[in-house]
Amino acid sequence: MFSKACTYGIRALILITQRSNEGKKIGVKEIAEVTSTPEPFTAKILQQLSRQGVIQSIKGPKGGFFLDEEQQNTSIYDVVEAIDGDQLMTGCGLGFLECSDEKPCPMHAKFKSIRASINKMLETTTLKDLSDDVEGGLSFLALKR
Hints:
This protein is mainly alpha-helical. The protein has helices spanning 4-21, 28-35, 39-51, 69-72, 76-84, 87-90, 108-124, 127-135; strands at 56-58, 64-66.
């Protein structure tokens, strides 16, 4: 459903949210290790998110990535849009360039209702919500290899 970059980014952001709640910053090496993601690709994703203001970073030995309270309340919709753009939310389910209510593809109506449900879930779920679920043992972030 999401691109690999987006899934890696969401994993990283959940971990960064957890560390930020503890008042800590976290480096890309540890993020990649804990979330089972490739370090160079993870670094590139985090750099993009930092440029867009989704996360903050400080360079140097005591540096790392972190989120303030407002950033922890970023919706997953906003994260997906920051990484993948709006294709998931607006694109054709079959990948056609032209697909609309006026000129629908065979999947348009079915995909439209599913997309509305997905969008609502993404808009109402925050990084903090997902972090709290992991902290509370309701979900997991990564399986050790």
